From TrEMBL, chain A:
Domain of life per record: Bacteria
Name of the molecule in the record: ABC-type dipeptide/oligopeptide/nickel transport system ATPase component
Record-stated family: Belongs to the ABC transporter superfamily.
Stored PANTHER family: ATPASE AAA-TYPE CORE DOMAIN-CONTAINING PROTEIN, OLIGOPEPTIDE TRANSPORT ATP-BINDING PROTEIN APPD
Main location: membrane
Gene source species: Actinokineospora auranticolor
Gene3D superfamilies: P-loop containing nucleotide triphosphate hydrolases
Xref: InterPro entries: AAA+_ATPase (IPR003593), ABC_Ni/Peptide_Import (IPR050388), ABC_transporter-like_ATP-bd (IPR003439), ABC_transporter-like_CS (IPR017871), P-loop_NTPase (IPR027417)
From TrEMBL, chain B:
InterPro entries assigned to the protein according to its UniProt record, in alphabetical order: AAA+_ATPase, ABC_transp_ATP-bind, ABC_transporter-like_ATP-bd, ABC_transporter-like_CS, Oligopep_ABC_C, P-loop_NTPase
One Gene Ontology term from the biological process aspect of the record: peptide transport
Keywords: ATP-binding, Nucleotide-binding, Transport
Family: Belongs to the ABC transporter superfamily.
SMART domains to which the protein is assigned, alphabetical: AAA
Coiled-coil spans in chain: none
Domain ABC transporter residue range list: 6-247
Species lineage: Bacteria, Bacillati, Actinomycetota, Actinomycetes, Pseudonocardiales
PROSITE patterns per record: ABC_TRANSPORTER_1, ABC_TRANSPORTER_2
Full protein name: Oligopeptide/dipeptide transporter
GO molecular function, one term: ATP hydrolysis activity
Taxonomic source organism: Actinokineospora auranticolor
Amino acid sequence: MTALTEIPVETTVDPVLAVRDVRIRGQVDGREIVKGVSFTLAPGKVVGIVGESGSGKTMTCRAVLGILPPRFEVADGAIHVAGQDVSALSQAELTELRGSTISAVFQDPASYLNPSIPVGKQVAEVVKVKKGFGRRAARQRALELLAAVRLRDPELVYGQYAHELSGGMLQRVLIAAAIAADPRVLIADEATTALDVTVQAEILDLLADLRDDSGLALVVVSHDLAVVAQLCDEVLVMRDGEVVEQGPTSRVLYQPEHEYTRLLISEHEQYGLDRFLAREGS
Amino acid sequence: MSVLEVTGLDVHYGLRRHRRQALAGASLTVEPGEIVGLIGETGSGKSTFARAVLGLVRPSAGRIVVDGEDVSGHRDRQWRALRRRGVLQYVFQDPLRSLDPDLTIADSLLEPLLLKGIPRVEAVERARGYLPRVRLDEELLPRLPGELSGGQRQRVAVARALITEPKLVILDEPVSALDAANRVQVLEILKDLRDTGIALVFISHDLGSVAGIADRVAVLYQGSVVEVGPARDVIAAPEHPYTKLLVGSAPTLRMAAAGRAEREALRALLNA
């Protein structure tokens, strides 16, 4: 499918991300830790990956971003980002792709920021490097980005250090940095897991806004099926490296086929809020 | 008689201009044989509440009565005596922290019994008897905590807390670090315990995780319990704006319980 790279992406409705039967293997023991993941993502759409630690969901994301840890490789399958075959790219091209076409935010925002540099300056740095802006323009753009992620006082936050901000504010800053170069795909890997529920709801709102306003496509990864249910058009349920169930969110939620998906759902129905709210609603 | 009566609890941290109030008049009563879910987000004071009840921080005001004994003015020696009796026990989120990594599972389970002065032979007998209640196999006894899975470790921590036959167990985020299957299993064990008459205080940041097992839910906000009631009432018909925001924000399989405009209005109301 190399011909795809020739077509200007704006004029097509081709997927911005296509993952086809991806298998990831550890080179040391030859063990397959991801055993065939496939999905496609169109602009403005959201795909969710649900699974517990060790299920392979994060490794799948890292393969898509071209940042697999040492001694792990994509053993089979193909990943196309905006039509480009990731495996055919050099390290330099991959670095160029990250940030400008595909970007990501992770669970612990503080660990991705330098504690001794004001957070706004770090966002501006991304703008400088990825967009080639000058110092003043980069600062202006960074302020716009901080406003775009609904930080109440962008000027103030710009000059603050990571330790002065709450977890929710830090995650907004990281999202601002992630969208600085107008990527077409954003991966949110457990991006709300460490946040309070009320803050999580706000970050999920923000992701929905970005999708609606700029056609950003999202990959939302979570251990919690309910988080994924908030946003996603399609859901993949992973366990031990395998996709045990995949389909439109409503189908997976209301007619789950795999016993593991049923366990995840029954946990919510028996032990979660759904136990009370579902009866109210129905 | 209530197992736990906390009235008007104030806790401050820091000195002079760094002085910060973590609890402001928090009150909660727990009866034998019930599970009370204590819900609070970051900075609500939920861990401070647990620490105060366990005697790990000294309150600046208020009263704590554990099993009829007023512990508010207790000194360290009195706390140690109370802990040795084993009336009050705790389970934390990370079982590696509540279990000594150098002790075998058997020794971890025996320790509280030996501290209580129970002869070793009898203690071993009792430890064996507890394993089925937490669904653990006897062959785990000679192993170290590091050799067990997270779910098994947390069940050992629960067994260790129960073995002194406490009247009250404080559980701080006991299932937050577990996967779905282990979470369900630990929750079922806790339900069984409740039915034997033990009182449990289940502390969590996540309303959803206690909704299914708590008999009553108490909502902690800015250091005070702002709402308390039967779990069904608090979740299906919350009264305090913060509880409404909390319930409305929780992801459920049927999308968020409240719309975005509703949540933003509640947030504005709370900040006003």
